[in-house]
UniProtKB/TrEMBL annotation:
UniProt xrefs under SUPFAM superfamilies: Sigma2 domain of RNA polymerase sigma factors, Sigma3 and sigma4 domains of RNA polymerase sigma factors
Pfam short name (any one): Sigma70_r2
InterPro entries (alphabetical): RNA_pol_sigma-70_dom, RNA_pol_sigma70_r2, RNA_pol_sigma_r2, RNA_pol_sigma_r3/r4-like
Residues in RNA polymerase sigma-70 region domain copies: 35-103
Record protein name field: ComX
GO molecular function annotations of the record: DNA-binding transcription factor activity
GO biological process: one example: DNA-templated transcription initiation
Domain of life (superkingdom): Bacteria
Coiled-coil segments on the chain, per record: none
Length: 203
């Protein structure tokens, strides 16, 4: 594939602006692949600069591809800044944003976990008076009425972490999978098992 792209674009000395136009106006996937591969060193340099502990390497590469495509669509041809510089700036901004989000979610999770542990140790509230739910959609209608006194005794450590992130931090499955370093499928299973345990406790 790489040889094919080289034959099509590199030998003709196709400029970045021409590649951008092919992506933008012709939806040329080969032009995009060549453009992205051309700036892979920029991507790898950015990966070395931002250490995201809860995002897989392949996911970060996919993010870079998305940023590159968006850059191709928004780059203003004819400006002083080259496409490479424009893409690099966009990519660094994206990775920096992911890093800030990761740090913020980690701090929230730690604070909420500590708060719940203290409240659980105080022993002030019971689970049956703490939850209100709809049998048809428990995890979209749970309302916090009181602090869950014995939540940690009912849920496993992983389920408890997912519960905190899902309902206190309002994180989605993708964000939770990043924080806990688990796949989206694993997070979905944890949510399902958490739901079942809470229903069983309430019945």
């Amino acid at each position: 594939m790489r040889d094919f792209l080289k034959n099509r674009f590199e030998k003709d000395n196709t400029s970045d602006s021409s590649l951008v136009l092919k992506v933008r106006e012709e939806n040329d996937s080969d032009a995009f692949e060549f453009l992205f591969s051309k700036y892979l060193p920029v991507v790898h340099k950015a990966l070395g600069r931002y250490h995201l502990h809860f995002v897989e390497h392949d996911d970060l590469l996919q993010e870079a591809r998305i940023v590159c495509y968006q850059a191709a669509l928004s780059y203003q041809i004819g400006t002083k800044a080259s496409f490479g510089a424009y893409f690099q700036k966009s990519l660094l901004n994206r990775y920096c944003s992911l890093l800030r989000k990761e740090s913020a979610l980690k701090r929230k999770a730690e604070i909420n976990a500590a708060s719940f542990e203290k409240l659980n140790s105080d022993g002030q509230f019971g689970l049956k008076t703490a939850l209100s739910y709809d049998n048809n959609s428990l995890f979209t209608t749970i309302l916090f009425k009181e602090i869950l006194n014995d939540l940690q005794n009912i849920l496993s450590k992983s389920e408890y972490q997912v519960f905190l992130l899902l309902y206190l931090d309002k994180a989605d499955i993708f964000e939770i999978s990043q924080i806990l370093n688990k796949s989206g499928q694993q997070i979905s299973r944890l949510i399902s098992s958490c739901r079942k345990k809470i229903r069983d406790e309430l019945n």
